[in-house]
Amino acid sequence: MSALFQNYARRPFAIVEGKGTEVFDESGKRYLDFTSGIAVCSLGHAYPAIVEAIQKQSEKLWHISNLFESPGQEKLAASLVEDLHVSYAFFCNSGAEANEAAIKLARKHTGKHKIIVFEQSFHGRTFGAMSATGQDKVRNGFGPLVSEFVTLPFNDAEALKAAANTETAAIMLELIQGEGGVNPVTDDFAQAIHDIQQSTDILVIADEVQTGIGRTGTRFAFEQTVLKPDIISMAKGLGSGFPIGGILGTAELFDTFNAGTHGTTFGGNPLAVAVAQTVVDHIFNDAFLGSVKQKSSYFASKLQQAFPEQQYAIQGKGLMLGLSLGGEDVAPYVTALDEAGLLTVAAGPKVIRLLPPLTVSEHEIDEAVSILKTVLKKEKIPNI
Ligand code: PLP
After folding, report:
1. Fold classification of 49-283 (topology level)
2. CATH class of the domain comprising 15-46+285-376
3. Which residue's alpha carbon is nearest to atom 10 within ligand 1?
4. pLDDT tens digit string along 222-242?
5. What is the CA(227)–ligand 1 centre distance, in A?
6. How far is the CA of 92 from the centre of ligand 1 (A)?
7. Where are the domains of the chain?
8. In the chain, what's the furthest Cα-to-Cα distance?
9. What's the rounded Cα separation, in Å, for the pair 168 and 146?
10. Ligand 1 mean position to 244 CA, how many Å?
11. Which of 108, 197, 214, 376 is the residue whose CA sits 20 to 30 A from 324?
């Protein structure tokens, strides 16, 4: 009998150890981790510089609260905004909290309440973030929700133009919908959002919780579009497994979050910040980001070679790739891949999401593609 709430559909084994892309279960079985803890362990498991940062900082100071100056947060904020159009950061502990901060900042700054969000989006499980999420399965049973979110079809510029008006505070989107099926924003749609942002006072919130911190081959995924979001939310990869989230915002928003308006006890504590600084120092440079792009092209081309048939589709960017199997439900295939030693995660019912650590090697990509080919091309696996 488990003493846990059964709110997760857990796989029937526990991972107890990891190094780089490899993880091991209690029986010692080895797996390639192409989940990265759902796009989190950006530098892989037990990355030496992170182990060292935790060891060093844990002997000095773990937590002190935001009652005091925070040199660590100052440095991390400066590293994150360097060469970007945003100027300020706020740190919290998770993606949902980052989106709460983004929603509150947008409402308070504009004095308006309506936020346009999109079908199949996922923004988190807290009330604001859940209400922003465009998936009934996430929201059902918890109403009444936070009001004033307007949900539109994703990548439909006409619907957006028709809905955006003087009551709209912000447009909130993922640059690639992660949980919703690895659906990238189209260039036309990004342009439509950009045009609205330029010609009105409507803010743009980019939820980069999954796509940010190098996952798509640039620091943030918006950098590969015309968009210059007013607010960027982040989490997941920022701590490479240590919980930390945050938002970045433009200079215009500075006065809106003044003392007492928003906060969190744990947010940006010295231990979390020491880890995140190590992550950012490793990832935010051309050599590392170039290697992500190069591995992404390699991975995508290997997948294309392994699955040339029309029923397969490969989508996504960087090391956030999705493979769909011609409309089939992927759950049984994900289980079969587990058994064959490759951990993957579904994105919606129809897409297998491939999220290796950004440090994955070409050799490990080859091994993963070989397992995918063997498992997915075996005879049809029945739905169980
Ligand atoms: N936003 C996006 C795009 C996500 O993918 C997620 C988590 O999957 C969240 C927000 C919520 O993050 P967290 O689970 O850290 O609250």
Report:
1. Aspartate Aminotransferase; domain 2 (3.40.640)
2. alpha beta
3. 123
4. 999 999 999 999 999 999 999
5. 21
6. 13
7. 15-46+285-376, 49-283
8. 61
9. 15
10. 12
11. 214
Residue 296 has pLDDT above 70, yes or no: yes
> Taking residues 174-181, what's their average pLDDT?
97
Ligand 1 surroundings by CB, under 6 angstroms = 38, 94-96, 99, 122-124, 174, 178-179, 207, 209-210, 235
Per the prediction, the chain carries an average pLDDT of 97
Amino acid in the structure at residue 335? T
Angle subtended at Cα 57 by Cα 54 and Cα 63, rounded to the nearest 5 degrees: 105
Strand segments, DSSP code E, in 223-347 are 231-234, 245-249, 312-317, 320-325, 342-343, 345-347
In this prediction, what percent of the chain has a pLDDT beyond 70?
Answer: 98
- Ligand 1 pocket test: pick from 133, 210, 232, 266 the residue with the most ligand atoms within 8 Å of its Cβ: 210
Ligand 1 pocket: which of 123, 205, 208, 215 to mutate (most atoms within 8 A of CB): 123
Token match 């070989």: residue? 370
Q: Please tell me the pTM assigned to this model.
A: 0.97
